[in-house]
Known about the structure:
By secondary structure, this protein is an alpha+beta fold. It is built from three helices and four strands; from the N terminus they run βαββααβ.
Amino acid sequence: MTDNVKTVGILTAHPGKEAELRSLLEGLIGSSRSEPGNLRYDLWADPSQPGVFVLDELYVDADAAAAHRASLHFQHYRANVGALADRRALSLRAVVVA
């Protein structure tokens, strides 16, 4: 069993806010990938649903995930995302993973 924590954020842009949302999300990538304890930080888009983005994050443990949420770049994201999108986040623990 692993202590890794996977976070999946599903964001649906408000009408006319797709480009702003994408920019905000892309702005997280470099800083988030540089965090100690970050194993993966990827941004995906659903080609069948314009304006739907998925953040796929993986951390070594719960402390690393908590440190990410406390970071300045994440706080900037949280302060701005509400005006741009509806958001759902899942914090997951491994059950059976390869």
